[in-house]
Please model this.
Amino acid sequence: MFHFVANLKPYTIGPDAKARFGSYLLSVDYTSGLIALVDQVHKQHSILVADNGNFDRMGALIKPLLAQAARLAKLRQAEEDHLKRAARPGELSADLQRKFVALRAKVADVAAEARKSDGVKKIVSAQNTMAPTYLIGMEDFSIPLLMGLGIERAYASIPMSFFTQAARRAIAYAVKTAKGGFGPCDATVFAGLHAVDFDTAKKIGGLAGDAKLAGIATGFGMALGDPKFCDFRIENGKIVELGASIPRSYVRVIDVAAGLHLGYAHATGHRPKFHALGFRTPILQPLLAVLGDRGTYTSTDSTAPIKDAYSSVTIALYVDRPAPLKLKAYLIAEKWLDGGIPWDCKCPFCAGFLKQHPFQLNKAKAWWKSKGKRKLTPKDLWAPSPLAEVMPLLSMPKNPELRKQAGMSRIGHNHWILKRLETNIRRRTGVELRDWVDVLVDKYVDAGSGLAWKGATRAAWAVARKAAEELKGAGGEFKPK
Model:
């Protein structure tokens, strides 16, 4: 069964949380102030996921290598401009490939040094203080660091053994954790595994299956932050042309998820329990869901519904009709002021806020007219802009209390949409779910903006659908405490 795992916060489980979730995630970095909420998760018999807190650590490890990676990216882009397409394996100049190989060696050194002070015993102890349903096992950082630095297999001739060695280290962490090697552990352990494409994922999924791991967790934060474009992918050692240059991120995350599922299923005869960490794009939720079924625990989590609503310069609100989309608040405002669709969401968060602080549309239109009806920007919805004061639900107005109330309403709205999307996914399984997602992707392409992202969604869906049709059997559901 598909689960959206909400980050455990007072506003996702407390009295103001109008959309309660069946699963919650808490990182070891934030346990100290939220123990009371952990007790509440257990009282309502929800699933509790204990994250290892590694994402921030990886960010610190990668920082010293970013400048060198940026220089190589510029050189690589120049060579690809000459090729007029993305470089296939072996197509970059020998000199540039040597430079990528050298950077890859630095990544291996950084990951090896990090393993010397991995702090697994302390992390596992902190995870188990929550009495979680399952915990995210310690990862080897080699692969996510590669992705974060933009080092592709095609650039550095990276052998499969590099990936399998990293996976075996993570598998060993998971097995040892489950057996109590880092201290008492009653929780199910999801191995923290990573891959960079379909083939590495399928191989690693097979290793996970051979080890009879209880579950797989994969972080997608680095992959979804990748700004590169691609016009091909590799499956079973063969180049698959995509027909256009599209954002690599969507294709990669589904390639990796599909490969892990297929590799595990081929080894065991059933799907793995699976958790996609940092899976922050609404349209990708149903694409991942088709890889599971009603008998298999499949989940995602993300802080994006919080950040998009409150801390991002570009405020975004989620919708699921006609398709799962992130709508930029300044574009909502601009189209509304230009006679387009109003923001009249009836969810309890938007409706409750607007009862107290309705839009002052006439004042907003007057301000826009005084500006020559120019294109709006994200900053137009931030104080001291007058527009922020008359359209507060879409904005960050000057008054601190009003700003917080508007932001919390948007956070509630985004989670409410994701909860409704989760419910709609759960109503279907197998062929019915695949056919529903097929229509959803068509609606997304019709409604979405940006030709490249539409192409990326279609390409990712083709991978997910093919893998879903190949997968057979079922895994197992949790019985929450």
Q: What stands out?
A: The first strand starts at residue 2 and ends at 7.
